[in-house]
Design brief:
Elements: H1 2-21, E1 31-36, E2 43-49, E3 66-69, E4 72-74, E5 76-80, E6 84-90, E7 93-100, E8 104-110, E9 118-125, E10 130-139, E11 146-159, E12 165-169, E13 171-177, E14 181-187, E15 196-207, E16 211-214, E17 217-223, E18 228-234, E19 242-249, E20 254-263, E21 270-281, E22 286-289, E23 291-297, E24 301-307, E25 316-324, E26 326-333, E27 339-342, H2 354-357, E28 367-371, E29 375-376, H3 390-393, H4 397-425
Amino acid sequence: MKYFYFIISILIWIGLTLTVHADFNSPAWEWRSRVIGGSFLGSDFVLLDLPSDFFSYLKSDLSDLRVANQDGEVPYVIAQEKESETFTGVPARMFNLSYAPGDATSLEVDLGQSGVFHNSINIETTSENFRRIVEIQGSNDQASWRTLNPRGQIFDYTVRDIKPVSVRDTNVAYPDATFRYLLVKVFDQGEEPLKVRGVKVFRKVSMPSRELFYSPLLEIVENKDEHTTNVILDIGARGIPHRRGRITTSSVNFNRAVAIFDSDNKTDWRLLSNAYLFVIDTPKFRGSSLDFSYPESNRRYLRLSIYNRDDKPINISEAGLYGIVRRILFKFDSVKDYYVYLGNSEARRPQYDIEAISQYVDAVGLNRVSAEPVEKNGDYVVAVAPRPPLTERSPYILPVILGIVVAILAFLLLKTLVGKIKSEHQ
């Protein structure tokens, strides 16, 4: 008997093992796309940038994406291009802070020595609700000044009420410089001088990720009760990653707070972030900010709720969204045919050794392959839903069976009692 149980255990283990390794079955995937190796010949790791139309056929977590060739499933790892951004602070001493009423606030900055690279300055201020043009100049002797940025822009938008909003940008960038001294002019243009409390100087080195651009469909709805313009951007499918955008408008001389939401059904909206949009074109100030950013989302709809207050709505003609490129890394052999399979709601996320190995693969010099348009998988077989249990197909069968069982039990109980009574009388 023990030998029998041992054999059964082995068979169960083999069955489970086969189940794990048989997760990919081509007929279970509805769509596929052929991988094109291009001029690459040989066998090595390659990178494939996922086309934006892939996301329309995949689950939002991409767990139903598979790569396969004629030999079977091919392990892969999904990655996104990571941004590299470093900030190196430079010791700075602010002095000669002064202002000419109605004209400009000026200050000088001593970095202690020349020869140290820097390219950005942050103006620390407690002032709120302002927009200013800032000029940055550099010098090594405080006598000969060279212009680094003639029209930098800083702003703050703060609302303190039931729905508080605070959006601020007081950084001014300029080309890499090694000057010891900086001259900063904040043009007040008749407004109250900013309350400058200090400055920070640093060098910012950025390696931005590659992005894809999307042109979503626009739906503009005016909410007169709440004095808002709701701009709904439809990117076309769920699952497409996006993280920032920009609007196009012909309106001028406005400044509006914006709340940014996302949704998959245009009913349940999730707040992502707040932004501040403006276009000012006057003799005293000329500048604009029409970009907005938010934590990355892969939901289909994005809503910009623009707070008009008592002003007329602005005219928005179009908008664009940007998302970081997603890519997969896998081993490619140019003599074999590769396909990316998409669309299986029952698929689970695969787990491959390549996820741990990929950190030792230098992606910089890898060859890139591409993918053809998505097509219907000719092997696809529509999954047949399992037949429901007999009790669901015949809802009355369970009560009938229970009734019969109760009747039998009652009969047996009655028979037992009758037999007991007869035995007592005898």
